[in-house]
TrEMBL record:
It comes from the Bacteria. PANTHER family: RESPONSE REGULATORY DOMAIN-CONTAINING PROTEIN (PTHR44591:SF3), STRESS RESPONSE REGULATOR PROTEIN 1 (PTHR44591). SMART domains: REC (SM00448). The modification 4-aspartylphosphate is found at residue 71. CDD domains: REC. Residues 22-134 form the Response regulatory domain. InterPro entries: Bact_response_regulator (IPR050595), Sig_transdc_resp-reg_receiver (IPR001789). This is Response regulator. Keywords: Phosphoprotein.
Amino acid sequence: MDDDLTSLSPKPSRDRPLAGMSVLLVEDSRYASEAIRLLCLKSGARIRRADCLASAHRHLSVYRPAVVVVDMGLPDGSGAELISELCGHAGGPVVLGLSGDRDAEQVALDAGADGFLAKPVDSLAAFQQIVLSAAAPEMRPMGPRPIARTEVFHDPAALAEDLLNAADLLKDAKESGEFEYLAHFLRGVALSSRDTELGAACDALAEGPGPALWRVEKLLRNRIAASA
């Protein structure tokens, strides 16, 4: 079914307040993507994923989502670029920034985002509230609705895939000397999986390699072994 055939789409309800919405998630982490996919499904929304800016543009060239959730640090550029592009057109989708970085929310809002999701994104109530508060009135369910207390359970296979991807990124970063994207990606994975030790190491790596690089490499090796 075409995503633009809204007349045939289900209507939002008290239990499925995002029914009828289509969501494009632009996120490079499979682990974070799986959590948001589950939140969308529990809320009644349909979801597609793009893992980079180029993939997002391919999706947007063939269908029109109601909501676009954009991670602020992507392998081929900043999510702020896509947010600014989407918010530059009248009648466009609801656009939400997504990140675990402390300063990213203001960057997303300055680029024109309608709202912001802070990692880890695992509360159904918080997710629904942020999406609905940014949506047009006609996209929201009528009347009061129960507060969803559910938290999603994450996929260990998705986490293992992200860790292996991070190991490849680390190898490339050691050759190029560029650690910014690696630190961003791995910090997002650490936040989503609530791994405070790995998150702290990534924060240190963002300040410069040195001893932080050895620590991240050791923790990553241990996490991959544990996931296996």
